[in-house]
Amino acid sequence: MDALPRTVRVTAAERAGAFESLLRRFVLGEQSEVSEEHALVVEKVLGISPGRRQRVEGSGPWLTGPAKDLFDAVPIALPQLAQAVAQATDGELESARTLAAALFRNLPIAARLIGAATGDENRAGLHNIARLDQEPEIAVLLVPTVVAMLQAGWQENLEALAAALRPFPGMIADLDKVLDMSAKEVQGNLASQPPNIRVRAQKMIDAALEGRLN
């Protein structure tokens, strides 16, 4: 995992304890009680804690509720994932493949665009999500994870998320077209926009020029 932003630094002992809890729950499948205080530290170690206080475009924080719910939300420990796939119907597997592909492709694009537009690489705790498509082994785990989520009744939420992410690849394509324009043409188009839109658009153009969105 990359170094955490300074706003979510933790001690070495806290990091070690957090990873021990995560491994016990999600690799070994152990069901142990986790305190709310410890779960908040785990959020910091994962780098997602800004999701409780930072918003994107006026929406509410995506990370809400007790932090310890992370350990109980969906049975996605490795032993349970194997069982979920073994019990999955053909329809569940097909839905899971489609949804997992959409999440693997589009979630990182959305996170990178949000980071570029805000100038904050870990805006709302999305930094590690922005790197998801650079870790191919994650794709192997995504399908059984989505299967488990579908079996837990999350289909509507997953489909809503996939639908919300659908426009983001088109935004990358639009930025590619902007990069083919002359600087004069780009500045002329930006000049007609409100100041806040100009600033945000320029940040995304700069990120595209520097290759940070690929």
Question: What can you tell me about this protein's structure?
Answer:
Helix 7 crosses helix 9. The longest helix has 29 residues. The chain contains 9 helices and no strands. The mean pLDDT is 89. The protein has a domain of 73 residues. It is an all-alpha fold.
Summarize the structure.
With about 210 residues, the chain is mainly alpha-helical. The chain has helices at about 10-25, 35-45, 80-85, 90-120, 135-150, 155-165, 170-180, 185-190, 195-210.
Write the layout of secondary structure elements.
Layout: H1 12-26, H2 36-46, H3 78-87, H4 90-118, H5 136-151, H6 155-165, H7 168-179, H8 183-191, H9 195-209
Helix pairs in contact: 1-2, 3-5, 4-5, 4-6, 4-9, 7-9
* Poorly predicted runs: none
**Rg, Cα atoms, Å:** 19 Å
Report the sheet with the most strands, covering strand number, pairing sense and barrel closure: none
**What is the helix/strand order?**
HHHHHHHHH
Number of strands: 0
Mean pLDDT: 89
Sheet/helix structural class = mainly alpha
User: How much strand?
Assistant: under 5%
Helix coverage percent of residues? 55-70%
Rough shape? globular
Total of DSSP H or I helical runs spanning 4+ residues? 9
Q: How far apart, in Å, are the first and last alpha carbons?
A: 19 Å
List the keywords.
globular; mainly alpha; 214 residues; 0% strand
